[in-house]
Amino acid sequence: MIKTFIDKLLGKADGAKSRKPRFGKRVEVPASVHGINPELVDRRAVDVVRTLQDAGFEAYIVGGAVRDLLLGLRPKDFDVATNATPEQVKGLFRRAFIIGKRFRIVHVVHGRGREHEVIEVSTFRAYLDNSAAEQVSGNERTSKAQLSGMQHAVDASGRVLRDNVWGPQDQDAARRDFTVNAMYYDPETQVVVDYHKGIEDAQKRVLRMIGDPATRYREDPVRIIRAVRFAAKLSSLGFALEPKTGKPLVASQHLLQEVPQSRLFDEMLKLLQTGHALASVEQLQKLGLAKGIYPLLDVVVQRASNPLVRAVLQDTDRRVAEGKAVAPSFLLACVLWQDVKAGWEQRLARGEHAFPALQDAIDEAFEQRIGDVSGRGKLAADMREIWVMQPRFDKRSGNQPFSMVAHIRFRAGFDFFRLRADVGEASEELVEWWQEFSLTDDARREDMMAQVREEQRQAQRAQQRKAQPVVHRLPRADGAESPPPADDAVPAADAPKKRRRRRRKPGGGQGGASDAGQGD
């Protein structure tokens, strides 16, 4: 009684509220309630969890994988959370690598080559009071020297730049963004640990931010893009953003200006290359974020109705669904082809040579649309090769088709050409020819080239005949038929020649003969 009175005088909360856990209440949900099918869990993720637990550490499958398992889906990626430090995790696995700056995590690699699988292992992190963090004037790039010795730092807007401090599981859960992504699953005991009613929100198909949404967006503005991505990804399952979570999105959008361009570029690719590109564009438009997140993303949204851009977004979603690889160079080559093509045609109209004109148009597109982020290096080189190949598909002469199919980027260039044909920008007949030529043997290729040469000769002869002047005979004025052609006018070769007779001069015949005789 006295304690309660003193608490009220000091402004403290009443007893019931003071007993409420600050970081959420731990609830352990058994398999009989959550219904997760263990057959959907990747055995490699189970091996990582078991290895950590056998070494005496806590370890759980965490994040989106648990959400998908609850929904009866087979997750594509598995993440693990533990109380072991990155160095301790690395020491337990033969092929493990510590990566990251702000968040130091461990990649545990299983298998080799294209069939390898990476299990991402992170250490539980502490929930820190950002008002007590050190403040720097710049961002991650401009303040590298200051940040090197800091564990907890924010910029002038309150965006967290460093917070690599380990902590307990309940604080780690409070740091996560959405309730449905903040659950922990132990594959050994098949128990789900839930601090923020994530199972309840998953059942209601609600995407709810943990904590105050406006504050969480300010701490990390990239959460704005993540909110769009999860809304797009889960929209087909009936999920929608909670109104309180969605309301501050537009007002918080300006905070993205402080995020490094390279990070925004990576987040844009996650929006477009995780199998929900079209849905992401729809969510951006629906939430009022169609413009202003990132300049290149603005172009994608603006051109989403363009036949070629829509075709590549659909094709990207299809390939991801089929488990096939997708390349950002291919997608961006389709998005920016409109700029390259327009610049190229303008230069050709001015009389410039085709190849230099195309190269200049490409340089201009890079400068205007991509800038310094990823417009150089391998991405730009791949995009350039795709574009430069396009006019070569129209030319099937000499050894060029053989060198084309041997090119390391031929498949990307051909797929681009095929998409252009699908939207009526290129010849379907040429697409079929190149498809067969690229897959057949050398003997058949020689036959196909011989056929092309014959077709080209026939076309050339037809063009020459078309270019020759046409002679029209006019009828005679008297109505009679014109004389027959020159065949009847030419004398026969065996006709006798007419003998020419000399005329004799009067009185001069003998004298002439006498003179002639004397000459002998």
Automatic annotation (TrEMBL):
Active site: 77, 79, 177
Highest taxon listed in the record's lineage: Bacteria
Residue span, Polymerase A arginine-rich C-terminal domain: 351-466
Domain tRNA nucleotidyltransferase/poly(A) polymerase RNA and SrmB- binding: 238-298
UniProt EC number: 2.7.7.19
The keyword Chaperone is annotated on this UniProt entry: no
Described function: Adds poly(A) tail to the 3' end of many RNAs, which usually targets these RNAs for decay. Plays a significant role in the global control of gene expression, through influencing the rate of transcript degradation, and in the general RNA quality control.
The protein, known as: Poly(A) polymerase I
Gene: pcnB
